[in-house]
């Protein structure tokens, strides 16, 4: 059970809401609905109405698309503090229904949701929140464009390097002169993100390891050579 203090802590520590007054934070807190999900649960499916904005409090959620053959492609992974569905708060006429699905990756994942109309009202009344919202959306679109370019134009080795760079930027932690990336992804999930086969992902990561560029653990990558991230 999530108490009010936990909601306020989440709001206080989410950059999007920085600058809200105490009254605005309390109002936002009262609007948040809290749900706990099991692994492989769906927050929403393709075609569902975009009537809520979702915030990940703990755990991970993947934004996915299925091909005609039901092959799953991962477009984005939401980590703690990330949110999704804000597009409809910007333009509810352009963004009506979800074109993707959101699938939970970890057990006991906690997600806050707020009705899109209420979220839009809050963002419109606070210019800083609205500006951050638009900036973050543009950043997400830039990343998707970069990933599409990587899949279309780059060789497999460089796609894996791009993946490591993106993960380092998102969740990497400095460890001395090295960078630790606790990604908790399977090689199949990395393959889905990079558009190459699972076997190829394994081969390339092992080549990087043998070359002394990285150290591999089951759910993490320690980058030894910063040139890999340059």
Automatic annotation (TrEMBL):
Keyword ATP-binding assigned: no
A molecular function (GO) term: DNA-binding transcription factor activity
Organism: Brumimicrobium oceani
One Pfam family matching this protein: cNMP_binding
Official protein name in the record: Crp/Fnr family transcriptional regulator
GO CC term, one of those recorded: cytosol
Keywords: DNA-binding, Transcription, Transcription regulation
Family annotation (CDD domains): CAP_ED
Record carries keyword Magnesium: no
SMART domains in the cross-refs: cNMP, HTH_CRP
Top-level taxon in the UniProt lineage: Bacteria
Domain Cyclic nucleotide-binding, chain residue ranges per copy: 16-140
């Amino acid at each position: 059970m999530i108490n009010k203090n936990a909601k306020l802590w989440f709001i206080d520590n989410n950059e999007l809401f920085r600058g809200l007054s105490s009254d605005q934070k309390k109002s936002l807190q009262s609007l948040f609905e809290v749900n706990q999900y099991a692994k492989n649960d769906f927050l929403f499916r393709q075609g569902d109405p975009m009537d809520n904005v979702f915030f990940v409090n703990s755990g991970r959620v993947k934004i996915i698309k299925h091909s005609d053959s039901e092959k799953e492609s991962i477009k984005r992974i939401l980590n703690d503090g990330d949110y999704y569905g804000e597009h409809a708060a910007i333009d509810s006429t352009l963004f009506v229904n979800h074109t993707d699905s959101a699938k939970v990756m970890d057990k006991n994942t906690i997600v806050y949701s707020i009705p899109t109309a209420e979220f839009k009202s809050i963002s419109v009344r606070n210019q800083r929140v609205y500006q951050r919202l638009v900036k973050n959306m543009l950043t997400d679109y830039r990343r998707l464009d970069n990933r599409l370019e990587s899949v279309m134009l780059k060789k497999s080795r460089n796609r894996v390097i791009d993946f490591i760079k993106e993960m380092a930027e998102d969740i990497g932690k400095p460890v001395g002169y090295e960078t630790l990336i606790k990604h908790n992804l399977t090689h199949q999930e990395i393959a889905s993100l990079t558009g190459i086969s699972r076997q190829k992902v394994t081969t390339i990561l092992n080549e990087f390891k043998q070359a002394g560029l990285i150290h591999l653990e089951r759910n993490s990558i320690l980058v030894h050579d910063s040139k890999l991230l340059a």
